[in-house]
């Protein structure tokens, strides 16, 4: 590894990079050839000066493995050697606030180091750090421990959360496990939405769930943004407010024009003029809006390029996850572009639903695919077609009471899934309402929705304009 000399400069350690030299790492789960590449990556990380504490003459973080790689960052498992020198109560879980916990005198406390790739824009990095700072205290959200910079290299320190791969357990989940998973996810969304934050990339890979303990945390706010309410409606729905986080339908000066455009498009389609599809040379101005997210989890309003996207897009993504769990199919949507993604959604909800959804965002949806006129009778019927054993209890010999309890729980889960996946964003259930749904309802979430004081400074731009008045 790289070590620091007495004058603070870094020197190369003659230690071998051979894949068998793993005493200082935790890579037994990796093939030998893969270990070499990961070790070289870790050595490059040690060149960041913030990892070394010159006053104590030791590395603050001892990196032992790489947890994952993404488009904009890489995440590493490390031990905080100086953990005992700081007050870490605010981010440690309850079970680790005792002197024992995950703390080891020789190694320190486990943390995750997120290395932002140098190709990321400074504005993007600043936005992520600012949002993480604003989300302190949110339930089921991985909190910011600290961050440091070395020239153009930024390292974000986060708690390490033990988790399981969604692909290995989503088909094994019974109603209690599904309830625990969705409760943790929706609590995280409720808390961040109350602070005016849209995650924009909710998916299983960004929700770390420990199957055994039933606890999960939302991570990776690299694409997150603060909701900025427009001064006036830009679509056929009002901007979001604290009392209506997903906005409300409304009529604008453009309503009649949009309705006429939809009527004309339907008329041309029925007349069989053959003008359904893409124009080879489209002179219309391009619509620019935020389309950030992962394919298969983007809400219809994102695909329709709605300029006023609310926190409802995160709720849709949570519904897609629940749909995967119930249907035993992952990923549910696997399109390569936005048009195919819209067609996948239309295959579930039908042509008429998508046309109404498009009109809500000042768009038209026209297709000559005949099967769109015959969508599944309901979302529940489609799920049962994909997973015919959904109503079968997981116990080997269930009692009549256990079987009835399982059936009722599945009914409630199907109802919640349909409410999370409403194509009309203004009618889609909020995270707070979902937590009060009969499938998830519990005493902790039965109270009134959180109403934050604008003077607390936790909601950023959300309270500049609230219900038409300056906050």
From TrEMBL:
Any one biological process term the GO annotation gives: mitotic DNA damage checkpoint signaling
Known EC number: 2.7.11.1
Enzyme class: transferase
Region of interest called Disordered, as start-end residue ranges on this chain: 1-25
Composition bias type Basic and acidic residues, residue spans: 15-25
Database matches in CDD domains: STKc_Cdc7 (cd14019)
GO molecular function, one term: protein serine/threonine kinase activity
Chain ranges of the Protein kinase domain: 61-440
Organism: Cutaneotrichosporon oleaginosum
InterPro entries on file: Kinase-like_dom_sf, Prot_kinase_dom, Ser/Thr_kinase_AS
Xref: SMART domains: S_TKc (SM00220)
Source taxon at top rank: Eukaryota
Name of the featured protein: non-specific serine/threonine protein kinase
GO cellular component, one term: nucleus
Keyword ATP-binding part of the UniProt annotation: yes
Gene3D superfamilies in UniProt: Phosphorylase Kinase, domain 1, Transferase(Phosphotransferase) domain 1
Keywords: ATP-binding, Kinase, Nucleotide-binding, Serine/threonine-protein kinase, Transferase
């Amino acid at each position: 590894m790289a070590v620091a000399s007495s004058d603070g400069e870094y020197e190369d350690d003659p230690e071998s990079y051979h894949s068998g030299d793993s005493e200082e790492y935790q890579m037994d789960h990796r093939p030998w050839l893969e270990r070499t590449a990961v070790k070289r990556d870790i050595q490059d990380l040690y060149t960041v000066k913030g990892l070394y504490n010159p006053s104590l003459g030791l590395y603050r973080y001892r990196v032992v493995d790489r947890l994952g790689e993404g488009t904009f960052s890489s995440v590493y498992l490390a031990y905080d050697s100086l953990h005992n020198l700081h007050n870490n109560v605010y981010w440690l879980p309850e079970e680790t606030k005792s002197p024992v916990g995950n703390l080891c005198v020789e190694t320190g406390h486990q943390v995750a180091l997120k290395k932002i790739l140098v190709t990321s824009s400074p504005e993007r990095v600043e936005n992520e750090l600012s949002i993480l700072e604003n989300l302190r205290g949110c339930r089921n959200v991985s909190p910011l421990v600290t961050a440091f910079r070395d020239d153009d290299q930024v390292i974000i320190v986060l708690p390490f959360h033990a988790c399981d791969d969604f692909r290995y357990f989503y088909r094994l989940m019974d109603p209690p496990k599904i309830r625990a998973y969705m409760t943790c996810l929706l609590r995280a969304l409720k808390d961040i939405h109350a602070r005016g934050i849209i995650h924009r990339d909710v998916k299983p890979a960004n929700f770390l769930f420990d199957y055994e303990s039933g606890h999960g945390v939302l991570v990776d706010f690299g694409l997150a943004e603060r909701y900025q309410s427009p001064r006036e409606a830009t679509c056929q729905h009002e901007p979001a407010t604290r009392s209506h986080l997903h906005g409300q339908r409304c009529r604008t000066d453009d309503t009649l024009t949009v309705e006429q455009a939809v009527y004309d498009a339907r008329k041309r389609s029925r007349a069989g003029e053959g003008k359904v599809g893409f124009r080879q040379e489209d002179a219309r101005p391009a619509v620019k809006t935020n389309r950030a997210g992962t394919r298969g989890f983007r809400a219809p309003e994102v695909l329709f390029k709605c300029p006023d996207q609310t926190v409802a897009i995160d709720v849709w993504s949570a519904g897609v996850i629940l749909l995967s769990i119930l249907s035993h199919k992952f990923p549910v949507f696997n399109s390569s572009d936005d048009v195919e993604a819209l067609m996948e959604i239309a295959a579930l909800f039908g042509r008429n639903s998508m046309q109404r959804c498009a009109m809500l965002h000042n768009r038209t949806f026209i297709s000559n695919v005949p099967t769109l006129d015959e969508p599944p009778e309901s979302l529940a019927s489609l799920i049962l077609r994909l997973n015919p054993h959904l109503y079968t209890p997981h116990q080997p010999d269930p009692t009549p009471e256990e079987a009835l309890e399982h059936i009722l729980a599945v009914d409630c889960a199907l109802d919640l899934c349909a409410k999370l996946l409403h194509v009309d964003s203004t009618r889609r259930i909020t995270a707070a309402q979902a937590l009060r749904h009969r499938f998830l309802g519990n005493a902790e979430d039965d109270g009134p929705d959180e109403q934050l004081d604008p003077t607390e400074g936790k909601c950023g731009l959300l309270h500049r304009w609230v219900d038409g008045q300056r906050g």
